[in-house]
Amino acid sequence: MKPARRTAAGAVVLATAGTLLGGATVSASAATTTCTAPVYKRQLFANTTFKGTPKKTDCDSAISESWSGAPASGLPKDNFGVRWSVTRDFGSGGPFALAVSGFDGIRVYVDGGRKVDLWKNTSKTVTKTVNVTIPKGRHTLRIDYVNWTGAAKVKFTYTPRTSATVDKIKPLAPSGVSAVYQPDGEGTNTLVAWAANKELDLAGYRLYRRLQGSGSWTRVATTAAGTRRTWDETPPTGQSYYYEVRAYDKADNESAGSADQLIVSQDMTVPAAPVLTATAVEASNNLSWTAPADAVSYRIYRKDASDTEYTKLADTTATGYPDTSAAYGHAYDYKVSALDAARNARSSNVVRSTRSIVPPQNVTPTVPSYGVVFTWTEAAGGDTVDYDVYRSTTSPVETGYENLTDCRSRKTGKDAAGNTVRSCVDYDGDQGTTYHYVMIRRNTAGRWSTGSAEMTVTRPGDEIAPPPVTNLTAEPLEYGFKLDWDDSTAADLKEYQVWEYHSCCTPDYLGTVPAGTSEFVAGPEAADGGSHMYVVIPEDIYGNYPRFTGAYWDEPVSRVTATELDLRPTTVPEDTAPCSLNAYTTLGDEGGMYIDCADSVATEAAGINVYRWDRTTRTYVRVTDTPLTPTATSYTDPTVPHGTTVYYLLSVVAHDGSETFSNVDSSVSLPSGA
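Now predict its structure.
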């Protein structure tokens, strides 16, 4: 059950309803309950013949019940009856569908005439829909339901049939129509109102207007079913006009017109509309407008951007107005009315303005390969202390945190006229993508401006790394490796990166080679038979190249593995000297080494000799004509061969001429001029 509000009423109403329902006896207790249409009055009987006094009377907003036991206190679970009734206005009437379903007996009456008769004890759901035409005006529906045994279930609906092929009945004409003419100096408006129509299938109302003396009606407005008033901009001609309202239903049947309402318009020759512009500054919203030829004064209106009603700000004869009362950072809509000598008015366009500091001016974006460079002229006063740049792939750009970009490399300078010029670079956008940008600035008072003019740029290039190089080789040299590869065919190639890869560790960056060059010497590296892996990576002008992630490159790369030449001495004397040798790679024309000896050498040795391995004779050749002093800590070899790996050892010469030998160490000498 769906209960509705109960109200007290007299027995006269119920007696009338009782007569319409077919003469059922109305008890004194039943007469105390009145249910306002379209709510049903419901009576529950402890029998299936609806005799005697109902055990319960209440209101029900819909008939859709399912009981597994007694439906109310004092009733049996079997052999009970329920009667629903409602008397209501059906407007113009029309085709309706009466639909029932449930168990056991169901009967439906319209004004006492039986329309549905399903009066049988059954445990299965029975359904039936009957199409009837209900005349216009008030009519009574009565639904009788009995449950003989078992579960009880009943449902009933009555709905208009709104198909245009079925429903040919026009709605009733609206009543209670009034028309009030309301000229306001800016226009001549008429407010038309009417009473609600009683149609159950009402779709809405249409307002029509005709010139007095003419038989032709013009539709000027359409409203929804729940709306009972609307405005019309009556032509300001000084002529008389009639208005009428017509209802239309869901089958688009339109009623006859309501009683005509006559109004007399004013003859208004209004000025031309001024054209309004607004400029937001920190102190005010500055309004300015064009002056129509016949305007003698102006009236300024403002409203909050979220409101619907305007408030008059001022009257003026000027063509500009600074609104200093506008709240800072708050959006307002403005319009200006131009008034002529007769006080006829015409409104301008509507503009929106937010009082704020001047945004960055003359912002110019350029798009080199590495990002987007913004250059802009400082606003008058030069009071910018900070600025933000917002980027989005959609327009307009929202100046929220999610769109804030890190515009780096910020610079401040002066142009030829002495104006402050600022610039910054957005390095982070994707190449080949179109972006929209807006810039805002903060002044010394801590206030942020609104956004600059939106800028749209497309980053050149792409986000695709050049393909790996091909035919990468590594030729072992006496001082390293010569790497060689085929020139890349990538049109946007910038350079090649050369790395030495270690399976255990992060690769070592060795250097770069510009586009157009396809070889690189990796070294200096001692030629001692070791194995090396090299990687050559092409990079384009947009910074695209494979990155090393900590364990591997994130895109395919070219690698080559090669083994060094082995130029080590074939014989190595026993290391018994109290000195050690640490040779180093030389970039000039001499080989070099550091000598580290025990303190005893300075007092006990006669000197120190330096030997160099000669691969041709397979012997160590002394390169010092005379022994070095026992206190020597370094030595340079002026006769070192260039472009190879040489090996040195030291001998400590005793006073008797005998020698003891140190460790062997290598020195890489680059080619002359390298």
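The chain has six domains: 11-160, 178-264, 276-354, 361-458, 473-563, 579-669.
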